Amino acid sequence: MRGRVLLDEPMSRHTTFGIGGPADALVYPETEEDLRRAIDWFRERSIPFKVIGNGSNLLVGDPGIRGGVIKLTRAFKQISFSGNTMLVGAGAKLACVIAAAAEHGLSGLESMMGIPGTVGGALVMNAGTDVGTIGDLVSEAWLMNDSGETRIWRDRELGYGYRESALSESRMVVVGAALALRPADRVDIYAKMNRLREKRASRQPLRHRSAGSVFRNPPEIAAAKLLDRAGAKGMRVGGAEVSRKHANFIVNREHATARDVCELIEQLQRLALTTYGIALRTEIEILEDT
Ligand SMILES: Cc1cc2nc3c(=O)[nH]c(=O)nc-3n(C[C@H](O)[C@H](O)[C@H](O)COP(=O)(O)OP(=O)(O)OC[C@H]3O[C@@H](n4cnc5c(N)ncnc54)[C@H](O)[C@@H]3O)c2cc1C
Q1: Do 97 and 190 sit in the same domain of this protein?
Q2: Residue 103 class from Cβ within 10 Å (0-12 exposed, 13-18 middle, 19+ buried)?
Q3: Tell me, what DSSP letter sits at residue 131?
Q4: CA of 120 to the centre of ligand 1 (A)
Q5: Is 89 in the pocket of ligand 1 (CB under 6 A)?
Q6: Do 79 and 96 touch, CB atoms closer than 8 A?
Q7: Which residue in 218, 255, 257, 288 is deepest, having the highest Cβ count within 10 Å?
């Protein structure tokens, strides 16, 4: 195996929630070859592994992760341009990608403003807002399968839907992607970015650690509105609290454990069901290993 390897690494250091016990091994591949070797190494030993991005949509259990975690770095953070197409590594942070596109006078990514994920995580989750999602922009994704073979999936194969894609269930590792953008006036792009940044700051509890929206929006009503009406704001289990600013955010107020968050999630699901007859499904991914 090549690249930095950390043993018994607390996942609380790698999730925006700041929660999660240790992973047996956290590997940082710097190149595609490193990634292939890491995948081979885990496969040959029948050790399960999970690729993560910025851990901004994850709740990792208190016992941690038995097996490997792969976090892409170096070559996977590269960004380049070919005309109006942006070529991005899966490990690049969305904030860097959005800034680079704006600098090049290319529009399309502004709707991702403030999403604290990487390109890889965004492609898998089809991250976005009501203004647009990354799936609208991906023309192709470069992938690596469990055997270390590379594949290209075009937009139609990626099966984008609301916060989901064909990648979610595929076990494919996203290596990078091509994003089709539109030329636009830089001033307009920056103005839109600022507008969306301010909107987010006014609505979301950005001073506290969280994993963003906990629940997917059911078809009937936005999850935040439903939970607010049901009186969920301020509900608390241990160090985990439903944000008083945004009812679909659970924030880590004081050394919350994954158990605290899971219990609070269950309470909110019961509340939504008994008050409105609506079953809420989680948007955050819960990685529990007991
Ligand atoms: C304050 C805050 C605000 C947020 N706002 C939004 C929002 O407006 N819209 C929105 O959609 N989301 C939002 N999120 C959630 C989150 O930022 C997004 O889902 C983001 O796309 C997750 O990216 P990540 O790199 O952190 O992925 P992670 O959380 O690390 O991983 C998410 C999933 O992607 C997989 N994955 C990650 N990288 C790869 C890869 N290279 N190959 C294969 N699989 C991979 C992981 O295995 C996991 O299944 C918010 C989160 C926070 C904390």
Answers
A1: yes
A2: exposed
A3: T
A4: 8
A5: no
A6: yes
A7: 257
